[in-house]
Amino acid sequence: MLFGLLCLAGCDSAVVAPTLTSSDVQLTEKERTSGVVLLKFGATWCGPCKQLDKEFEQLEASLAGRVKLLKIDVDEEPKLADQYNVSSIPYMVLFENGKAISEQVGFMSADEIDQWIADSTTTPSKVGT
Predict the structure, then answer these.
(1) 44 Cβ partners below 8 Å, 6+ apart?
(2) Percent of the chain scoring above 90 in pLDDT
(3) Which of 13, 14, 71, 76 could form a disulfide with 63 if both were Cys (CB 3.0 to 4.6 A apart)?
(4) 82: CB partners within 8 A, 6+ apart
């Protein structure tokens, strides 16, 4: 079940999100159950997690308005990591309309992330498609 997530930037654009804590977790029922949310679990000491954040920066414009990107630090939020059975990082879970539809472990390039979203969702991937 998708837990309540903080909606960033008015829920209208993808952003390289600040790390969320359980006290930040809040989202209306409509926002939680509609659209695409990409939840990324990582840690500040994790090299591949830092590299993945740079890839998300490259995707920011193409994901704007279509995908909500949210980050969780597993060291600060072990209960959330346990809830999603995170055993390796970086770990990403893709949700569409409130349902977990796909997951990935490890580093992915910006192109691979974009293709993963396109292949996994009914939301068009690149701007103009």
Answers:
(1) 73, 75
(2) 50
(3) 14
(4) none
